[in-house]
Amino acid sequence: MFEHIDKKKERLDENRPLPKYTLKSLREKLLLEWTYNTNAIEGNTLTINETKVVLEGITVGGKTLREHLEVINHRDAIKYVEELVQKDEAFSEWQIKNLHRLVLKGIDDDYAGVYRDQQVFISGAKHVPPAPFLIKEEMEQLMGWYEQADTKKLHPVTRGAMLHAVFVGIHPFIDGNGRTSRLLLNLELMKDGFPPIVIKVENRIAYYEALDKAHTEKDYNDFIKLVMDEVEDSLDLYLSTI
């Protein structure tokens, strides 16, 4: 299933390190597209060019403070993910809460990095997230699953996709679960040397449907395939510079 992806990654690895300024431009391109798309999926109305302007420190007229903060916060969260990858720190709930704290900083500080104490529902989904009193236990189960030897043996794409899907199914936070889950997915991929991926806003319906299928039927195949396609896109981008 992953042979063609693994071959592309092998080719990329053989040509590493990439030139300094090539890497810099790739990072800037993906940071912009990742930030724009992840926020657009959640309803942020900034265009990709407006997102670029906000990342450069300029305010866009007619847009809300929240929309501006979502861009700045996501940039800071990506920096945190990059730091975790460089330090090779063991995955932990503390990291998840720190990521979420960055995502909601200045937007909802009372709930930034804090598990929810209220029931929530996912708009348009059949799946209903667990009650608040179950969150601690379900997050412990998620971390336990991650630490299992069998999980470590999974292909990084499968492991990252399942981490994203299970996490967002638990929906442990009041807000910002989608952004956090996509950051976790890329954290997992980047740890294994894959470039970050962008779940594109134009694929939002397929993305939501694949997640709902994973949550209601425990069938992760559609979601893993969607992630695999985006991984290939990112590998192709990097390989185009060689």
From TrEMBL:
<feature type="site" description="Important for autoinhibition of adenylyltransferase activity">
    <location>
        <position position="42"/>
    </location>
</feature>
<dbReference type="Pfam" id="PF02661">
    <property type="entry name" value="Fic"/>
</dbReference>
<feature type="binding site">
    <location>
        <begin position="175"/>
        <end position="182"/>
    </location>
    <ligand>
        <name>ATP</name>
    </ligand>
</feature>
<feature type="binding site">
    <location>
        <begin position="207"/>
        <end position="208"/>
    </location>
    <ligand>
        <name>ATP</name>
    </ligand>
</feature>
<keyword id="KW-0547">Nucleotide-binding</keyword>
<feature type="domain" description="Fido">
    <location>
        <begin position="91"/>
        <end position="229"/>
    </location>
</feature>
<dbReference type="InterPro" id="IPR003812">
    <property type="entry name" value="Fido"/>
</dbReference>
<protein>
    <submittedName>
        <fullName>Fic family protein</fullName>
    </submittedName>
</protein>
<dbReference type="InterPro" id="IPR036597">
    <property type="entry name" value="Fido-like_dom_sf"/>
</dbReference>
<dbReference type="GO" id="GO:0005524">
    <property type="term" value="F:ATP binding"/>
</dbReference>
<feature type="active site">
    <location>
        <position position="171"/>
    </location>
</feature>
<dbReference type="InterPro" id="IPR040198">
    <property type="entry name" value="Fido_containing"/>
</dbReference>
<keyword id="KW-0067">ATP-binding</keyword>
